[in-house]
Amino acid sequence: MFYMQNHLRELRAREKMTQDDLARKAGVTRQTILAIENGKYNPSLELAFKLSHIFKEPIEKIFEA
Asked: What pLDDT digit, counting tens, does each position of 8-31 carry?
């Protein structure tokens, strides 16, 4: 399986958010955020849109194929 590169950790640090903070805002578990950041999980399209909204960044800036 191919996993996308992402900039979630950097965006989270920029906003001074913990993984728990982001997980709560996105409606997922901290483990999900950890797995995405470590490139071990591709988020659903719905979650990608939520993250885009939270960070006010286009999905393309958060995730790279």
From this structure: 999 999 999 999 999 999 999 999
